[in-house]
Amino acid sequence: MVLKLGGSLLDLWNLGDLLQQFGQGRRILIVPGGGEAADTVRQLDVCGLLTAEQSHWMAIEAMSFNAGLLRRTLVGVSAADGLELTPWRWPEGLPLVLDPAGWLLGSGCAAAAQIPASWDATSDSIAAIVAAAIGVESLILGKSCEPCSMSMADLAAGGQVDACFPRFAGRLRVGWCNFRAPVPKVVCLQVETGQGDQ
What we know:
It is globular, with a radius of gyration of 16 Å. It has 8 helices and 7 strands; from the N terminus they run E-H-E-H-H-E-E-H-H-H-E-H-H-E-E. Helix 2 (35-46) runs antiparallel to helix 3 (52-73). The chain is of the alpha/beta class. The protein has a single domain, classed as Carbamate kinase (3-Layer(aba) Sandwich), CATH 3.40.1160.
């Protein structure tokens, strides 16, 4: 499965332990969110200091920066390298961390063309695109809060996922996990008819 790990979780004191528990018996590829670095890019974009294309790629680079932080600060995670294209080769119980910019500029360049250079498609959509591109059916959104709804359309309307996410995730089994909950657990989100067919 692909785990989109929200950038807001990077300061969680027991994140490493939670990921090890979450990964037990599973093959997991982590796609990190952009966190505070991406928020800064967004602010600069709003001020008109960056073009849409510059903002787009700088936000993706923020995701890659956070991937490096995860690899360097957490025990039991490693770089995906070339294994992201062959999920059956992922080690069980040892989460791999994807470098989103490296993948989108390399073997994922065809997938990169699907992503609009706007804030309508952020790390949630990119994680869904990664999962679909490498043939993984399950995507878990690792968040810092509970979902406002089980409907992906409602989540997008409420700003808990980006606007493009329901379309990109429409063919996936999508779950949500609040990693800041006392006992994190995955809840399944609903797929509305017609999603993923656009």
